[in-house]
Amino acid sequence: MKITNEILHAVIHCNHKAFLKKVQGNQLPQTEFQTIFETLKQKQQSVIQTKLSLDFQNIDYSSNLKFEKGKTYLQISFKNAEVDLKLDGIYYDHRNSFAPILISPFEKVQKSDKLFIALQSHYLQQNFNLKIEEVRIIFGSQQKSTKVILRNLSKDVKKIIATIEQIKKFETHPVFYKISHCQVCEFNPICIKKLQERDDLSLLGNLKPKEIEQKNNRGIFSVKQLSYNFRPKKNPYRRRKFLPELKALAIREQKVFIQKLPELVKKTTEIFFDIESIPDRDFYYLIGVIVKTENSATEYSFWANNVTEQQNVFIQFIDLINTQNDFILYHYGSYEIQVLKRIAKKVSLPYQNRIKKIIENSFNVLTLFSNDIYTPTYTNGLKDIGNYMEFNWTDEKASGLQSIIWRYNWELNPTNYLKEKLITYNIEDCRALIKVQEWLISLSENNDQTVLANSIKQQNIFKWGVTVFALEHFNEINAKAYFDYQRQHVFLRTERKVYKAISKTKQTSKQYNRIDKKINLFPDKCEKCSNKDIKIIRSSKKPQIDLVFMKSGIKKQVIEYQGGAYFCKNCKKNFMVEDMRRLPTYGYNLMLWSVNQKIQYKLSTESIINLLKDSFNIGVSATQMTRFKEIIATKYEETYNEIIKKMSQSKLIHTDETIARINGIDGYVWVFANYDSVYYQFRETREPEFLKELLRDFKGVLVSDFYTGYDSMECEQQKCLVHLIRDLNEDFMKHQLDEEFKQIISEFGNLLRNIIATIDKYGLKKFHLNKHKKEVEKFYKKVILPEFESDLAISYQKRFIKYKEKLFLFLNHDGIPWNNNNAEHSIKPFAKWRKKVSKSLSKKNIEHHLILLSILQTCKYQGTNFFEFLKSGKKSIYEYSEK
């Protein structure tokens, strides 16, 4: 394969295009964009030639060719058996060095321009022994010039050259995706056809190449396969960001799925507008506007022939909007608002205030399709959405790119035909936007092709659940096939044994409470004057069910309390002894026992209720069980606060966090642990700002994972090396052929193994760990600091450099571990409880549970029995454990 300009242009954008160029050459005709680019470039070359008064053109390089120092040459061809390159120009300086020149007709220099001229320079150096250190790019209508130092692009150039060498060896088509370059590529129809045949994921406009690669690694290669991965959210009120799986499902089912019905603000006047521009110039030459009221729709077009007329166009637009009172301005995408913000910086203050009002009353329709509404279209572009709603543009080729081509052609040959074409296209975009807005408003009405995403039911024959039948008759038949229904309504009548069993269950379910003790709350004398002449005016009795803890076991006890109101004949006043309605039905010991079963033994509420009923004939409801936990947790808040206070005074804290879903809303449980204490706290977000206040007195070392939120803490930090080696291992399994990354893993493994061997022998003592500091410095100098070409190796290089001090801080301290195992271990008790009760969690429930769980885990770390501590009535675990 001979290296040509076409090959270099292609490989910068797309490997597949370069392969097709190698196989087919330049047989296909140029696209309109390529044609207009060549025309503009030729025009630019002519201007430069005239400006520099150059006579040298179309020169074929040979070893005999003599260049004059300080001169520029245009259109130089370099040919041999390996390459066939044509440079736009070359400059020969007084240092005997060459500077290749690239001419661009556009006003901005793209990275692709720099890479192209850098690649040309590489092959010139390699094949013709030319000395090249820098290149020049001449661009724009003013023929501006910029220099590019080649060594700054060396990494990118090496990667592309390696790609070219691979393409030379390719015999079959390389893997390719749909990318932004496709719209200007001559092979686009061929590639799109192949992508559609394989239903490729890249057809979905919102998926990035890395996301496609991740899904490919999971065995998902087509849009249809992706559609089967959609899982409806458990909480119907919580929206998620854009879901490609739901988009794929919409395409497969040819239906519209909605996460939330749109709520469009209604105004007297609705304005729809669209702006056309030439991006590289930041030149906005056309604004289309449709002002729609209840009875009319008026269309406006504001056209600028050149940049000097641009500001007048926007002033006309602003003046038109300023005449409206109650209005809303619809646009599709954020581009129009970004343009208005740029224009606001160039106009006078009154117009700046008017633009601000326009922006405040604007609405981006695209956000609805990005977040809430999933149509059966591959992208959310206005053309795709409009075509789905059966809106047709006059020109079938109409698109944003095509409008740029039309504008360039108009500037080369200003005819009314092209101008009218652009104005028509611009206004039709506004009409399409009206069509979309009307469709959005109609969504609230019944539509067979519209489905709420949260109403989608997962059907799986291997899971327990309610089967949704197509016929109502089947639902009725299935309902009467349930076990409980048949046993209590069918078998009851036909089987005598079933009848007896159900009768016994009803009899034993009745609770019987024999009074074991009676307590009279009425005093013998008045509590104010001590007069014994009192009269009971209202009396009531109430039993309280409790447990009695004995050395050899537990028994049930029912105490009957008598209380109410009495009258003192001496004071002539009424006194309330006890409001019997407020007297707890269940005693404190019963509450302690129930909470202990839930917190320490992780029994479910249903299990504790059944245990109380079977063992003590005590009936308790689920609501009362929740109340038990709340009462005990509230009592021990002082103990809970003492734990974090003690930890803040220690030299070490491990910390970690885990998700806690509360009725579909994601919260986070943070855990803080050291050698003798554990503290849990629930937060509604993962924001780490609360840590500064919580640990404001902590002066020790914080051991954590690599969550960047911890970096804001001012204390010394040790990052968990176990987390790091897990990440290294996971990435290595995906990139086993990456030799640079393999070297990092190997050397880091050797370093860490030596350190761990010392820890196993002497413990976490800095006296013995100090010797490894030299090994760490050697590891960084030899392995981490050299330059890498692999993206993965570069990313880990940055990570190792950023966290150098935090990765090996434990070498400077006594008793500081190199991993976060303590915090991870402490998360497990909460995770096990979360797994059991995830459907019934609430914020209040979690907070109470975490208070008691903190006390339980701290008791375990202190070697203290949790239940005995609760029974003791003490508030300080640390004082209790010292006894």
Please, could you describe this protein's structure?
With 883 residues, the chain is α/β, with parallel strands linked by helices. It is 46% helix and 18% strand. It has 34 helices and 24 strands. A hairpin with a 2-residue loop joins strand 20 and strand 21. The longest helix is centred in the middle third of the chain and has 26 residues.
Brief summary:
By secondary structure, this protein is of the alpha/beta class. Helices cover 46% and strands 18% of the residues. It has 34 helices and 24 strands.
Q: What's the story with the biggest beta sheet?
A: 7 strands, mixed
Approximate helicity band:
40-55%
Give the overall form: extended
Outline the low-pLDDT stretches: none
Count the E strands. 24
Q: What is the tally of helical segments?
A: 34
CA-atom Rg in angstroms:
39 Å
Terminal CA distance reads 86 Å
Mean pLDDT: 87
Query: Approximately what portion of the residues adopt beta-strand conformation?
Result: 15-25%
Structural category is alpha/beta
Secondary-structure topology with pairs:
Blueprint: E1 3-4, H1 5-13, H2 15-24, H3 32-52, E2 59-60, E3 71-79, E4 83-92, E5 98-104, H4 111-128, E6 134-139, E7 144-149, H5 154-169, H6 188-197, H7 209-217, H8 223-227, H9 244-253, E8 256-258, E9 269-278, E10 283-292, E11 297-303, H10 310-322, E12 327-331, H11 335-344, H12 349-360, E13 362-364, H13 366-371, E14 373-374, H14 382-388, H15 400-412, H16 416-441, E15 450-452, H17 472-479, H18 483-494, H19 496-508, E16 517-520, E17 534-549, E18 554-568, E19 573-576, H20 588-599, H21 605-616, H22 622-635, H23 637-648, E20 652-662, E21 665-673, E22 678-683, H24 690-694, E23 701-704, E24 716-719, H25 721-734, H26 739-762, H27 766-769, H28 773-784, H29 791-802, H30 804-807, H31 821-837, H32 843-862, H33 866-872, H34 877-881
Helix pairs in contact: 1-2, 1-4, 2-5, 4-5, 10-12, 11-12, 14-16, 15-16, 18-19, 20-22, 20-33, 22-32, 23-32, 25-26, 26-28
